[in-house]
User: What shape does this take?
Amino acid sequence: MLKRSLLFAATTLAVTLPFAALAAPPPSEPPIGGNGGRGMAILRPCASAQLAAAVTSQTGAMMHRELRIMLTNVSQRACAVDGFPAVRLLDERKAPQIVAESFSRTPRLFIIAPAQAAAFMLRIATGDGVTSYRSVHTLAIIPPGDTAPILLDVELPVAPTIDVTALFPAALVQFAAPRSGGEQR
Assistant: This one.
């Protein structure tokens, strides 16, 4: 009789356990910038509306142009960044020009406080040094986690390839003082 009772209890447990697991809430991803609920507010990804863009330096040599672009948090709330910005060269009708993109540096999660900034580097390979390329006057930048672009007025060649680095805290930028820049529209 004891064997029969144990067999019944084991069978009942085996049948009800999967249903109990289905009733449990699924595990959730930790919030961006969160630390498992230990006192830190939930931060959302930085939206385009929170950021102002500016070219803080431009350098060029044979066959490439390199720009440092800073995204400053102009809102009253901190936000989080993790990854690569999407960039598009736009013609005068604001139509994207097709170029190959490559990505470099390892992305990392960090927070942009109000009035603080993130930066990334944009390198445009202009080919063999002989070919001339038409230019566009608008760069669209879309922060990771958003779909709305920030439009930046800067003249750039529509070259075959663009390299975009992962965003990094602007405090880590160690370059010479800005020489020229674009203005946000």
